[in-house]
């Protein structure tokens, strides 16, 4: 009985998480443009999506920024976590604390302060400022994820390696990095998602030359969201599912 | 590891956008508010490349223009924001000598109080915010004026915009005042009227009120005409009324913000959008009303004669554009908070 209840509960949770996505996918094939009544099966929204270069370009730009910022944030974040875990120095507590402050501060504050900083520095708003903005957004999350992974380490392994003559670099690349990989991957995926659906920071840090997808969709509210956005969302979800599946396969084979 | 880093830097350098165009234009506009074909055609005719970026509200656009102060050549503020940005010196005056097609505009939409003489703005699209009623559920004679919204039998069937200005406009018009009223006594009267109405409102929705209307969740209310047009297409019983007391008109205009670099290109684009064939294509494609008088003949008859999209001259006379309120805005805000919290 208990087992049954457990599985029902689990299914309910999954239903709650995935039902909205299923509904959206369902309506992306609906022939009716406005109402939620079913008016027959159609693929025309997917066809429309292919001709809507504006939306498509924005999606590609979003993916570019998400992949780059997740990767850069992962490198910086992992190094930060390593430093915080491995060394004791003045100001360590402050850096650790500031990471959490960054995670807690509202997007609008980060967005406006970055914009003011970029303008004061005389940067032209566009691709580079957006990338910097997204890296700034993601680094704390990666650092925290990887840091908590490091905390669970067995220190004696590292000490043993040092006893056997490994230098700092070897310890980092041969022992710490392989052990940190799961945290690294989790941090990367988290960053990727954060970057992909961030609206507010993107709004403030990007310029007229580099428009990303969330902004494009968000500013449709005045005129109503069109069904080709549903179609695009379905395409993006499929890509995401495939990517997650592949990354799991790759990680499995490595072990 | 080193190889990997080099590869990464290489990817970054390759994916950065390149700037090779000599003639370009940066347009800042709502999404999907300008069909791609119209822009592509302009680029073909003139060789000017148009970069489009989007905002989701007038407030957001104003913030970005104020803070960034450059990078955009054309913006599309609503009438009250034209008034505000004009007063704050955020706009550049237009060079009318480069806008030979300006005379195509209907006299009903130029020289409005929010921008006298159109020194700073070129009308782009316009519409109304007025009363909608489902005659199928309420009967055809239930609502004929704003006053009828206060009938007790409308209780729980009302939908209003989630927008302070639009809601106050309804009450102010009911009392015979301007939608830009700044007299505290008159505002107090409007507030008292709305206090009676608010408990009866079923939903406040500015994004997609058509959904609630089409599902019969509400039967009467105030919406903007774009929503009314769609609702009426789906269900002919849902009708749109221009009440005798008057109603609010909205208009989005094209302006050149301070800090714009490509002034010639901006004027060329403005003049292109003012061409009758382009304005007609815009209106037809989007289903919104064009302020371009010369374009009217080129618009398909079913749109041109649809009163939801194009009210008669006489009806337009009862309409009024929202302007910037200045100091009075605080009073409105206070009353709005009071209404929303009780």
Automatic annotation (TrEMBL), chain A:
Its main location: membrane. Belongs to the binding-protein-dependent transport system permease family. CysTW subfamily. InterPro entries: Bact_Polyamine_Transport, MetI-like, MetI-like_sf. Keywords: Cell inner membrane, Cell membrane, Membrane, Transmembrane, Transmembrane helix, Transport. Residues 59-247 form the ABC transmembrane type-1 domain. The keyword Cell membrane applies. It holds the Pfam family BPD_transp_1. It comes from Pseudodesulfovibrio nedwellii. It is found in: Cell inner membrane; Cell membrane. This is Spermidine/putrescine transport system permease protein PotC. Required for the activity of the bacterial periplasmic transport system of putrescine and spermidine. It is a multi-pass membrane protein. The chain crosses the membrane at residues 7-29, 63-84, 96-121, 127-150, 171-190, 229-246.
UniProtKB/TrEMBL annotation, chain B:
InterPro entries: SBP, Sperm_putr-bd. Residues 1-20 form the signal peptide. It comes from the Bacteria. It is found in: Periplasm. Pfam families: SBP_bac_8. The keyword Signal applies. Keywords: Periplasm, Signal, Transport. This is Putrescine-binding periplasmic protein. It comes from Pseudodesulfovibrio nedwellii.
């Amino acid at each position: 009985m208990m087992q049954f209840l457990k599985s029902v509960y689990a299914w309910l949770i999954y239903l709650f998480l995935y039902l909205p996505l299923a509904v959206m996918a369902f309506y992306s094939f609906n022939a009716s443009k406005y109402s939620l009544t079913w008016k027959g099966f159609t693929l025309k929204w997917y066809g429309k999506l292919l001709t809507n270069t504006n939306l498509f370009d924005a999606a590609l730009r979003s993916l570019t920024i998400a992949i780059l910022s997740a990767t850069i944030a992962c490198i910086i974040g992992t190094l930060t976590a390593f430093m915080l875990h491995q060394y004791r120095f003045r100001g360590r507590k402050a850096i650790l604390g500031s990471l959490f402050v960054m995670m807690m501060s509202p997007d609008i504050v980060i967005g406006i302060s970055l914009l003011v900083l970029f303008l004061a520095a005389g940067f032209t708003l566009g691709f580079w400022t957006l990338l910097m903005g997204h890296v700034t957004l993601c680094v704390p999350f990666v650092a925290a994820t990887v840091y908590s992974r490091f905390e669970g380490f067995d220190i004696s392994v590292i000490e043993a390696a040092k006893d056997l003559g490994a230098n700092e670099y070897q310890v980092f690349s041969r022992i710490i990095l392989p052990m940190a990989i799961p945290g690294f991957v989790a941090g990367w995926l988290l960053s990727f998602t954060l970057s992909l659906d961030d609206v507010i920071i993107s709004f403030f840090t990007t310029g007229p030359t580099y428009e990303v997808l969330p902004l494009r969709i968000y500013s449709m509210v005045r005129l109503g969201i069109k069904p080709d956005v549903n179609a695009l969302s379905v395409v993006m979800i499929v890509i995401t599912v495939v990517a997650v599946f592949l990354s799991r396969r790759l990680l499995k084979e490595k072990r | 590891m080193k190889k990997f880093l080099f590869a990464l830097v290489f990817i970054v350098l390759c994916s950065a956008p390149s700037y090779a165009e000599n003639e370009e234009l940066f347009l800042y506009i709502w999404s999907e508010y300008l069909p791609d074909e119209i822009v592509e055609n302009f680029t073909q005719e003139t060789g000017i490349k148009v970069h489009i970026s989007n905002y989701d509200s007038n407030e957001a656009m104003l913030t970005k223009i104020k803070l960034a102060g450059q990078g955009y050549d054309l913006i599309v503020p609503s009438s009250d924001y034209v008034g505000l940005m004009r007063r704050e010196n955020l706009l550049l005056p237009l060079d009318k000598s480069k806008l030979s097609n300006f005379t195509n505009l209907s006299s009903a939409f130029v020289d409005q109080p929010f921008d006298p003489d159109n020194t700073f703005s070129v009308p782009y699209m316009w519409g109304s915010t007025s009363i909608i009623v489902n005659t199928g559920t309420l009967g055809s004679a239930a609502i004929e004026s704003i006053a009828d919204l206060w009938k007790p039998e409308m209780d729980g069937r009302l939908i209003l915009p989630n927008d302070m200005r639009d809601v106050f406009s309804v009450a102010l018009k009911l009392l015979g005042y301007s939608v830009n009223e700044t007299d505290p006594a008159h505002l107090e009267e409007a507030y008292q009227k709305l206090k009676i109405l608010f408990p009866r409102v079923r939903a406040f929705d500015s994004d997609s009120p058509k959904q609630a209307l089409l599902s019969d969740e509400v039967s009467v209310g105030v919406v903007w005409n774009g929503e009314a047009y769609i609702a009426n297409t789906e269900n002919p019983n849902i009708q749109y009324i221009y009440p005798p007391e008057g109603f609010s008109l909205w208009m989005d205009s094209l302006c050149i913000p301070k800090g714009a670099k490509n002034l010639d290109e901006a004027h060329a684009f403005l003049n292109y959008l003012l061409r009758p064939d382009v304005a007609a294509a815009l209106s037809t494609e989007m289903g919104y009303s064009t302020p371009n008088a010369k374009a009217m003949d080129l618009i398909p008859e079913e749109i041109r004669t649809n009163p939801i999209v194009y009210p008669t001259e006489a009806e337009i006379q009862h309409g009024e554009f929202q302007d910037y309120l200045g100091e009075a805005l605080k009073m409105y805000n206070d009353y709005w908070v009071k209404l929303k919290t009780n």
